[in-house]
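Recall the central idea of this unit: under ordinary conditions, the amino acid sequence of a chain determines the structure it adopts. In this exercise we apply that idea directly, starting from the sequence alone.
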Amino acid sequence: MKILFEIYHSTSEDVLYLPILNTNKKTFQLRTETLWFLKQNSINDSHLIFLNDNDNIDLLKLKMEKKLQLTLVDHNYLRNDLNENVVEIIDHHSPDQNILLKELSPPSLLTFKVISRNSTKSRSEVFRKAFMFSKSLSFTLVFFKQIHGKAPACSITSVSSFEAPLRELCEALKTSEKLDVWPFFAKVSNVNPSSITIEKVGSCCTLIAEKLLSDKQFQFTEEIANLLRGPILFDTINFSTAAGKTTEKDCNIFSKLKSIMATSTDDKQLFNDLNEQAADISAMSIEDLLQKDLKMSMGPNIRIAVSSLPMNNTCEEFINKLKTMKDIESFLQKNDNADAVIILSVKTNDKNEPSRQLGLFVKKFEHFNKLYKYIQQEEHGLELQERSIPINQARLKLFNQKNAQASRKQILPIIEQYVKNFEASNE
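Accordingly, the structure predicted from this sequence is:
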């Protein structure tokens, strides 16, 4: 994805664009499906630049020399000072609410992108209500962009203390039917709101492809179309309706990519090949399985890892391999000495219908009960049903997740809210 995006930008003669992976080479080796797909397209890891392994690119030095601008793809925040150099964001994940309210302070700009399947009239009504609501809370609401056929956006600048009113405004907007409201902020001096694309689609490659397709100067090749095709198939679980990830935009963009490819392609076979590669854990340890697809949610009082297991490897199978908790505890210690890990798994049948499980391990028993009860709350909509496990360990739990459409994209904000509100004194 990053490679394609930088190809798009490489037409600039004044700026050198480099695709940099925000990981290290060792961790990247766990991405078996990615390695396989890149190899199929004549790309190996020697062609890639890894942020944590490359001593030849000193981003901090470039930052100090005011020569650094960053575009984030498939994520929306860096947990370091380099975040100040972000000038563009293309992502399909909900922004970290914990970061949002922690970092936002006047005079900053808060940007809302409202993704709606309703008519323009309906969206306008929502914005009218939002304006009246914000006005009563000493907010100034300014519309800066509304493009036909695309999500309108607005910016909100506070003139008073606004953390509590901000929460209320977010909730007021969310009550509108068929609306997904994702708040995000950018310091006025850094990110132009028009350079923020955060949209709820099945694959971030859909947004990249849309950007490339809309540029009349960009010359699309069959090779580039194929590089985008694979991730979209994999991310949407081959456009499975039951998985609930696919949007109309994913389908439309994929159709356009297919039209560029002169040779016929077997989408089902490619998806099955990617699935098979992703499920291959023959060379992976317990720690590798947890590390392969990891997100961290970190607060002042608690840190929680959220690990997605490789496709078609279930939490139940993972737990059955455990004899002690030493491997999990070692994994937590190596990842910011985290206090707990949420383990997610998805398995598909012949019809690409997903079934999900959730595992929970908490390092300290005094932290266990609160998190154990929290994730089962009905308001989260995960529909968890606890299962028995073959190991006698009170800090480890296994659940069947009946809401099969709730992926990590939906679960992570739930965990982030818990982390933000967690107070050690309550335990």
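The first helix runs from residue 2 to 9.
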